[in-house]
What we know:
Layout: H1 3-8, E1 72-81, E2 92-96, E3 122-126, E4 132-138, E5 150-157, E6 160-168, H2 170-179, E7 207-208, E8 211-213, E9 218-227, H3 237-243, E10 246-248, E11 259-266, E12 270-278, E13 283-292, E14 295-302, H4 303-306, E15 312-321, E16 324-333
Parallel strand pairs: 1-9, 6-7
Antiparallel strand pairs: 1-4, 2-3, 2-5, 5-6, 8-9, 10-11, 11-14, 12-13, 12-15, 15-16
Amino acid sequence: MSKNNRRDFIKTTGLLGAVSLIPFGKGISKPDDDNGACVLIPTETAGPFPLDLSTNNFYFRQDVREDRPGVQLNLRMRIIGVGNCEPMQNVRVNIWHCDKEGSYSGYSLPINPGQAGKTYLRGYQFTDANGEVEFITIFPGWYNGRVCHIHFQVYVSSNYAAISQLTFDIDAKQALYTAHKDIYTKGKDPLTPGQDGIFADGYEYQVATLTPNNDTGGYDSFFEVAVKGNGTSSVGHLERENAKNFLLGQNSPNPHRGITTVPFSLVIPSDITLDLYDMQGKKVKSIQQKGLPAGDHKIEINCKDLGLPVANYVYQLNVHNRNGVFIDSKMMSIVK
């Protein structure tokens, strides 16, 4: 994908969209018997090696492996609102984790030498109508003082993001290391979550599933995260500024079988560009309309004519008017 194409994509941290492909699995967060609400994910440190994924659209990708060897891990995450246990649509989910040797990309420190400028095992996706995202990665290794884990951030709006970490069932994790000891040459993880300072205060809602995948020769993992909100969240600065100028609606029907309509409303006369991207950030369609009056509008997208396969896509609306340029995006899904 060209640098110019990526530069056009996801120009603000307010972008909303999604992808998920692994079969549905059992969630981790569950209703609390006392109040009927879901359990809010514990907040954890971002760790010593976070990178700002939100402003770098290079990291908008499903497959984050790059050149890192390891057992393939298909990680599916489902984001729900703690207030009603319903899916949180159109929120950004970042992940980052170490490689099989315990190294993080992006930094060079005495405990993490030679990794400056590297980008492996980092990426973000956007939740679909089921609140789900999927990443293709490798099963992480471990390093001294920390149990095997994956960092993640759920960016709900420009004024709220949940930052936490997930880990895996001890027996399942050790069995994976043992079965692939030619790859994970450091051997089994010497710590349990209870011996790790991050998880020592409890990790009941931070354990992801881990099951073999006969098709890939790797593993599938599912993890459910409850964050503040009721399917939507409080509105931040970017959303408020957009609302003064336009409102982008969810395409209908969605999911669809090739033909769908994107609705939007303009507060004042504007020029618009509607771009359609696949989940690797490649632009597959661009529609421009100039001099549109204030009011409600619709644009039909015929994915059949574009020859697009069954998958998830992001549509991004760029609005240019006398107040400036404003951008919002959402996800659509093509099904069989």
